Amino acid sequence: MKSVVYIIDDNMVSEFATKMVLQQSSIACDIFSFDNAEIGLENFVDSIKKGKNIPDVILLDLNMPGMDGWDFLAQLKTIAYPKNKIAIYVLSTFTSAKTREKARSHELVAGLFERPLSKINAESILSEKTD
Mind listing the GO biological process terms from this record (predicted)? Predict the structure, then answer.
């Protein structure tokens, strides 16, 4: 069965590049893109309620207007979902070592990658979910 991947990123160029890398990966996946964290969160909650299109992987940008990636992660802590079955990866442009360390040490974050996501990293992420 194909993995389901959510891309939550307000940067259209980054979102497009991430989607292209995932589509060119040797591992098939269904991709859902959201240009802001609020819509991504609403869809996440809806998918959990319906038991359909629940993401295996969330690729999350941290810096977004309105609800940012940190707010998204804080909201996820309040939602009942299978945390061990959903891997959240921060995909961002890190401006400081402090931000990188905060992301790396966050309890819900499985890993972090600089934008743009490489094909090797995409396949690594997807292969972990298909094993």
Answer: phosphorelay signal transduction system
